[in-house]
Design brief:
Shape of chain A: globular
Order of helices and strands of chain A: EEEEEEEEEEE
Distance between the termini of chain A: 36 Å
Largest sheet of chain A: 7 strands, mixed
Number of strands of chain B: 11
Largest interface: A-B, 28 and 24 residues
Number of strands of chain A: 11
Helix content of chain B: under 10%
Number of helices of chain B: 0
Oligomer: heterodimer
Shape of chain B: globular
Radius of gyration of chain A: 13 Å
Strand content of chain B: over 45%
Helix content of chain A: under 10%
Strand content of chain A: over 45%
Chain lengths: ~110, ~110
């Protein structure tokens, strides 16, 4: 089944404790992206990647890092999480990231930073 | 800066009713507009993608229209069913790779 998977689905952590949220897709998509969703603000893009070793900032990149060493994986790294990073996070992918592509989303990771 | 709004924020209708969800965006220079459905715990599912050169797209009971010049899109759902209950999001693609999402409309279809 074609899908985008994220792990963990739920995470409660404390301020300053480094964490990684993994994202993997099995559709051989070149484009991958991370979003956060907050009440009243909609989804906002954090980082995106057009292909392996190519990443770029979205609207709200501060406090996050990403890497794209393999086509299928796009982990999101919070090196020193803070409470304002408590949010629902989504990973997404599309074939090439062109304007005609549909995005496919993972199920989301709910992160709470205490 | 592109901003996307959706009206209403929430909507409750009886089963079988036809309904319209609205999406507005401030900058008409977009490549495309996409409607998504969000179910709790299941992420987002793409419903319809309308390119900037198109006026509408249809899929089953769903019809989405786009009026770029006025910065508006509507999602029409015919003969609503309880299984249509979800949050509906619209997103525009102004340039590059950066999508801009609206806050969503939470729809409840009552049996």
């Amino acid at each position: 089944e074609a899908q985008v998977t994220q792990n963990p689905r739920y995470l409660i952590t404390v301020t300053g404790k480094k964490l990684t949220v993994t994202c993997s897709q099995n559709m051989n998509h070149e484009y991958m992206s991370w979003y956060r969703q907050d009440p009243g603000l909609g989804l906002r893009q954090i980082y995106y990647s057009m292909n392996v070793e190519v990443t770029d900032k979205g609207d709200v990149p501060e406090g996050y890092k990403v890497s794209r060493k393999e086509k299928r994986n796009f982990p999101l790294i919070l090196e020193s999480p803070s409470p304002n990073q408590t949010s629902l996070y989504f990973c997404a992918s599309s074939l090439f990231g062109t304007i005609t592509d549909t995005q496919y989303f993972g199920p989301g990771t709910r992160l709470t930073v205490l | 800066k592109q901003e996307v709004t959706q009206i209403p924020a929430a909507l409750s209708v009886p089963e079988g009713e036809n309904l319209v969800l609205n999406c507005s965006f401030t900058d008409s220079a977009i490549y495309n507009l996409q409607w998504f459905r969000q179910d709790p715990g299941k992420g987002l599912t793409s419903l319809l993608l309308i390119q900037s050169s198109q006026r509408e797209q249809t899929s089953g009971r769903l019809n989405a229209s786009l009026d770029k010049s006025s910065g508006r899109s509507t999602l029409y759902i015919a003969a609503s069913q309880p299984g249509d209950s979800a949050t509906y999001l619209c997103a525009v693609r102004p340039s590059g790779q950066n999508f801009v999402f609206g806050p969503g409309t939470r729809l409840s279809v009552l049996p």
